[in-house]
Amino acid sequence: MPERLFGTNGVRGVINEDMTSDLALQMGKAIGIAMGGTVAIATDTRVSADMIKAAVSSGIMSAGADVLDLGVLPTPALQYYVRTHSNVNGGVMITASHNPPQFNGIKCISPDGTEASREEEEEIEAQYAKEIPCAPWNEIGDMGRIKGAGEEYIDAIISKVDSESIRKAGLKVCLDCANGAAYETAPLLLKKLNVRAITINCNPQGEFPGHPSEPTEENLKDLISLTEATESDLGIAHDGDADRCVFISNDGKYVSGDKSLALMSRYALSKKKGSIVTPVSSSSLVEEIVNGAGGSIDYTAVGSPIVARRMIETGAVFGGEENGGLIFPEHQYCRDGGLAIAKMLECIVKDGPLKSQISDFPVYYTMKKKIECPHSMKKNVLDHLAGESAGARMDNTDGMKILFDDGWVLVRPSGTEPVFRIFSESKDEAAAKERAEKYETLVKEYLDQGFS
Ligand code: MG
Question: Ligand 1 center to residue 242 CA distance, Å?
Answer without folding.
Answer: 6
